[in-house]
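RECORD TYPE: inverse folding
INPUT: structure tokens
STRUCTURE:
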């Protein structure tokens, strides 16, 4: 009897855990600003990490730093000077440890262009799921080859269809030229992806640039592989993630959030937003990050390099038009030890060194 009660409690707890995750609209919502915000009463830390990642990464907005999270993207005053509109989002059906959200919108730089993006999170930790962490290192090239073959087949099949036309119009001839020149090689570094109930969908970039997009009937390439097909390539992290285990394996540095202090008294938060790995551990990897002082919540850019466990970072202050170069504000030299980073933050002008201590959230 006691065993039955225990099993019931475990099942009930699992059910509650799944049901307690809610996704709603970030306020103020408009038709051009429809963006997801997470509520997860079961795990407030996970809730905070996911919302922070989404809002900093997509909106360049630190949560609770102002009344309108969409101010920068809606006025074209982001770091990349684009207007960005978010029209809709969708929470996808996934295994229980995973949250996948798709978003559709439009970005306006030199030309307006619609976009679709997918963001995937580990609900055990709140961490962004990096596709590189899903596969054994020895399997990455195999996965990239499989994806390239699928794109190539899709393009070639469409070429056969186009070339079967008798007396094709000029537009068809231009399409044939577009697809004959299309590169079908794939890299996990530049591919999008999202989880489904029993499969992983990869979204490879289209064959056309913006100017040729009207000719590109194929568009982006959605490539589905079932979890069963991918099973032999999974890393231990992916196996535990997908089978519902609470065991969390170590994952890479990219897209991680860190909290800590400068000089032992100024709380900061750091988001590693881009990571460009070296071919081997003896060479330099590079990364970009944003950090903010928890008090004023203004984003500050970091450009970093990593060799082994050592990190070197340049914090730029402003761009000098007269000299055509960035003027630095500070330099960071630090070492990574497990999930902690410690070192010095040096003021560029005064050369004063302050301690910096960070720990992965």
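DESIGNED SEQUENCE:
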């Amino acid at each position: 009897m006691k065993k039955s009660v225990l099993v019931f409690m475990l099942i009930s707890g699992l059910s509650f855990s799944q049901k307690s995750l809610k996704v709603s609209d970030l306020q103020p919502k408009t038709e051009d600003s429809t963006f997801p915000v997470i509520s997860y009463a079961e795990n407030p830390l996970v809730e905070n990490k996911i919302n922070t990642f989404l809002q900093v990464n997509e909106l360049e907005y630190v949560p609770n730093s102002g009344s309108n999270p969409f101010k920068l993207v809606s006025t074209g005053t982001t770091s990349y000077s684009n207007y960005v509109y978010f029209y809709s989002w969708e929470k996808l059906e996934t295994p229980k440890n995973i949250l996948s959200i798709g978003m559709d919108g439009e970005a306006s730089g030199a030309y307006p262009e619609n976009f679709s993006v997918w963001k995937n999170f580990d609900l055990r930790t709140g961490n962004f799921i990096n596709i590189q962490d899903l596969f054994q290192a020895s399997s990455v090239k195999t996965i990239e080859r499989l994806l390239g073959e699928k794109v190539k087949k899709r393009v070639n099949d469409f070429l056969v269809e186009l070339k079967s036309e008798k007396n094709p119009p000029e537009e068809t001839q231009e399409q044939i030229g577009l697809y004959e020149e299309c590169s079908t090689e794939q890299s996990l570094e530049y591919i999008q992806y999202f989880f489904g109930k029993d499969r992983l969908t990869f979204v490879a970039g289209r064959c056309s640039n913006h100017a040729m997009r009207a000719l590109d009937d194929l568009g982006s390439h959605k490539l589905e592989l079932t979890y069963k097909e991918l099973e032999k390539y999974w890393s231990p992290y992916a196996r535990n993630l997908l089978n519902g285990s609470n065991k969390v394996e170590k994952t890479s540095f990219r897209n991680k959030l860190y909290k800590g202090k400068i000089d032992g008294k100024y709380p900061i938060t750091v988001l590693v937003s881009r990571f460009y790995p070296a071919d081997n551990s003896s060479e330099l990897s590079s990364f970009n990050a944003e950090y903010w002082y928890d008090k004023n919540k203004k984003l500050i850019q970091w450009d970093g390099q990593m060799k082994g466990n050592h990190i070197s970072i340049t914090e730029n202050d402003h761009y000098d038009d007269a000299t055509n170069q960035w003027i630095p504000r500070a330099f960071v030299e630090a070492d990574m030890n497990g999930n902690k980073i410690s070192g010095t933050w040096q003021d560029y002008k005064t050369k004063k060194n302050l301690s910096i201590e960070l720990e992965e959230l």
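NOTES: Confidence is low (pLDDT under 50) at residues 1-16.
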